[in-house]
Structure formats: structure tokens, C-alpha cells
């Protein structure tokens, strides 16, 4: 399928297409609005808020606390030493960096959204609007559900090279359009999230992009909870109401299938620079 017609179900209700790129095994959103920033300016865009209004918001915040703990543990395992530094690109409201700071990490974040950046700074997180403001090197650079938002992948990978220590690690977490929940919900799959998500990746895509930009993919890990949250939102978009039992069933089946074929709803990719 070379094109998928979908829409911005969460905010604008505008129509978009996903255009397949065979070389990289990914989709790209078309068209990309000139005023893309305005599509983030909504209290419905939960990663820029700490909202707990709806039941889905509350579930998101509960899972967020669990995943922050698991991310903290993962980062501690892959990075040796006590004087560790991390740059979290797209840090949102800064909850992960807040946790890492408590665990003796040297932390800095990048967050373009002014409101989210203000919330991060309220938590004591040092946060910048753009990576160009930084000239230091980091042991870890993380992008948790951020690479899909980046307009220019070439520029972004070049920035990763510029800011990463020679023996550092890059953590990239993105949705996977080859997952079972993506196929079940089709154009209603919430992780397409157009136009905010410009790119829609497979593992092949991440591996090829990494290789082209002098990184190598050394490990992948599943994000077990993502499929359940994405399925809840997808239910809302497809059926106009949420069937919690069906959403749980789709999420569970997606994870079970992924144990065999590796196609989890979202995956974590650990990269390091080539020598």
C-alpha cells in the first residue's frame, strides 16, 4: 500500500495522506502544513501537559510514571560511571529528566513548545528551545517519541553526531507501523497522529537511517504499554467511543504477536557511533 488516507482525528479533523518510501521502508505525511506549530497548541496534546481530566488522561499519567521508572533503569544499565550526562530532545514537561536528576545524572533538555518548557523548568529541569544553543557533549542523547516529529532527518542525525560523546549512546523510541494494532485500526491508528507525526518508521527504516549517518543499531527493546494507550485512542477515533475491553484485547494480541515477530507497537532503538 503506497498511500494511506487518514486525518488529524485529535485536533483539526483535516485530511492527510501517508506516502510510502520504498528505499527506507517508511511513510511520510503529506502535506506538511506551514503552520505546523499550531497543531500542537491544544490541551488535548497530552505530552505537552500534565493533564488528568479524562479517564484516558489519567491512565496516560499512571503509565507515564511506570515508564519513567523503566526508562531510568534502562539508561542506568547502558551507561557506566557516576558522572553521567544526558540530553533529552523533546523532553516535554521534563518528568524523565526530573527523575534522572534525583538519580545523580547531569541533565539537560530540548523542548520547542513554550508551555511544556515552562512546566519542565518549574520542576527544576534545565531546558532549551533548540539544540543549536548547546556546544557540549553528552553520554546519552534520548528522543522518546520525537524523531517522528522532526522536519529534517538529515539535520537531526547530524546534530546527534555533534552532541554525542565518542562512546555515547543514542536512544530513539518511535511507533512502528508494522505492528498488529496498526493493521487492526488502519487509518484510525492513533500513532499516525498526523500532521504532528511527519515520519512513520519501521525497524528497517531506523537501521538504514542510522547506517547512512554513521551510527549502528546495537539493540532494540519493546515499549509494552504503548499499544494499550494507542488502542484506547484508536477506539475513540474509529468507533466514536471507547470500548475498553476491545482496546485491551487488541493491545494484548499486538504484544503477543510481537513476541514472535518483533513488531511491537512502539520500539526503543539503541544506537552508537561507528568507529
Question: What does the secondary structure layout of this molecule look like, with pairings?
Answer:
Blueprint: E1 3-7, E2 15-21, E3 26-30, H1 55-78, E4 85-89, H2 95-102, E5 106-110, H3 114-122, E6 127-128, E7 138-144, H4 153-163, E8 164-175, H5 180-185, E9 199-200, H6 203-212, E10 215-222, H7 226-239, H8 244-261, E11 266-273
Parallel strand pairs: 4-5, 4-7, 5-6, 7-8
Antiparallel strand pairs: 1-2, 2-3, 3-9, 8-11, 10-11
Helix pairs in contact: 1-2, 7-8
Terminal Cα span: 38 Å
Radius of gyration: 18 Å
DSSP helix count?
8
**Largest β-sheet summary:** 7 strands, mixed
Low-confidence stretches are none
In sequence order, what are the helices and strands, one letter per element? EEEHEHEHEEHEHEHEHHE
Secondary-structure class: alpha/beta
Q: Would you tell me the overall average pLDDT?
A: 92
Q: Proportion of β residues?
A: 15-25%
| Number of DSSP E strands | 11
Percentage of helical residues? 25-40%
Query: Which strand order spans the largest sheet, edge to edge or round the barrel?
Result: 6-5-4-7-8-11-10
Principal-axes geometry comes out as globular
